[in-house]
Amino acid sequence: MFKTLRPSRLPRFNLRLYHSADHIGTNAIINNNLIESKILTRAIDYIPQYGFHPKTITRSIHDLQYPDSLISVLTTSPSGYSLPMQLMIHWLKLKRQELETFANTTTGTNSELSEGDKLKQLIKYRLSLNKPILGQLSQGLSQLVVPYNLSASIEELLNLGDDLAFYAGDTSNDFAWYSKRIGLCSIYVKSELFMLNDESSDFTLTKSFVDERVNEFEKLGQGYNDLEQWVDFNAISLINLIKSQLARG
Q: Does 70 reside within a domain?
């Protein structure tokens, strides 16, 4: 059984100082010139077949005609994360890059859409990127909730929330900067978990779920006084939500 996380057990992670103008494009995250990045990017093609498993990376190394000894480059990574976790984080970053491209060419260029409508488009598009690996996604998510992986998991999740808000046109420059992003993280996580069990045609139920959650979010609004306590609580809630859903299968 998964254990419930308490604030005292949550790893510390860095919080960005707010302002949307400080947003850094996701293309700066992955250095495609690194051998590790080339291996992990190629390995993405094998996730539907093998899942988030070391064999996926082995196949990638063979495809790229690298020596088998290169597997040690990844297993001895300074991050200390397992090969499946490294692959999952790489997958998440690659999908954020695709989200950026979509936002810059589609959502961001449509001035007639409201911020809420843009959020719906962005979240639905990001969810659609899961389709090729949907059968293996729960395996990848299980890597994110391993205790010693939580710091990287939460950081990547908050980065996604930042991207969603920024591409939707958010201009907040006060505490709303934080509350909006954690709120969007929550919507995305809940929608992704809903999608795992959605058998409707073209995931129409998931799309409706996203619409409802964004509408609720726009109406609700949030306010908090203690930033650290607030982030801890909400981050833990999201991680525990993923754990509870995975435990159900």
A: no
Provide the residue range defining the domain that includes 180: 16-25+82-248
Phi-psi region of 114 (alpha: psi -120 to 50; beta: other; left: phi over 0): beta
Question: How do residues 48-79 score in pLDDT, each as one tens digit?
Answer: 999 999 999 999 999 999 999 888 878 887 77
The token duo for 177 is 């900067």
Q: Is residue 7 part of a domain?
A: no
Q: Is the pLDDT of residue 7 over 50?
A: no
Check if the beta carbon of residue 111 is closer than 8 Å to that of residue 117.
Answer: no
Q: Is pLDDT of 4 > 50?
A: no
In the chain, which ranges are continuous DSSP H helix? Answer: 35-43, 47-50, 54-63, 71-75, 83-105, 115-128, 134-144, 150-167, 176-196, 204-220, 227-248
- What's the number of domains the chain is made of? 1
| Entry pTM | 0.84
Q: How far apart are CA 122 and CA 103, in angstroms?
A: 7
Which residue shows structure tokens 């993280």? 185
pLDDT at 182 (0 to 100): 82
Round to whole Å and give the CA distance between 145 and 246. Answer: 10
Q: What is the DSSP letter of 112?
A: T
SS3 assignment for 13-63: CCCCCCCHHHCCCHHHCCCCCCHHHHHHHHHHHHHHHHCCCHHHHHHHHHH
Res 150: pLDDT = 87
Residue 64's alpha-carbon distances to 32, 54, 56, 82, 147, in angstroms, are 14, 16, 13, 21, 33
Q: 16-20, 64-68, 83-87: which has the minimum mean pLDDT?
A: 16-20
241 within a domain of the structure (yes/no)? yes
Segment 26-52 shows an average pLDDT of 88
